[in-house]
Amino acid sequence: MTATTPPQPSLGTRTGRLITQDDLQFRDLNGDGELNPYEDWRLDPETRAVDLVHRMTPEEKAGLMVIGSHHPGYSSFLPHAEEGLVLNPEDVWRDANPITSQPYPEPVLVTSSTDNAINARHQRFLICRDNLGPGDLATWTNAVQEMAENSRLGIPVVFASNPRNHVALVPQFGVNESAGVFSEWPNELGLAALDDPALMETFGSEIAREWRAGGLHKLYGYMADVASEPRWSRFNGTFGEDVELVTSYIGSVVRGMQGRKLSHTSVACTIKHFPGGGVRLDGHDPHFEWGQTNEYPTQGALERYHLPPFQAACVAGASSIMPYYAKPVNTSAAQLDEQFWHGPTTQFAEVAFAYNKVFLEDLLRRRLGHGGYVNSDSGVIDAMVWGVEGLTKPERFAAAIQAGTDIFSDMSDPTELIRAIEQGLLSDAELNQACTRLLTEIFQLGLFENPYVDVDAAAAVIGAKEVAALGEQAQRRSVTLLRSSGLLPLNPAREVKVYAFVTGRTRIGDVQVKLEEAITRTWAGAHLVGSPEEAELALVWARPEIALFEDDREGVALSVDPRDNGVDVDRVREIEKTVPTLLVVNFTNPWLLGEIEPEAAAVVGSFEIHPDNLLRSLAGEDGGPAGRLPMSLPASVEKIGQSPRDVPGKYCGDDYPYRDRDGNVYAQGYGLRL
Question: What is the E.C. number (predicted)?
Answer without folding.
Answer: 3.2.1.21
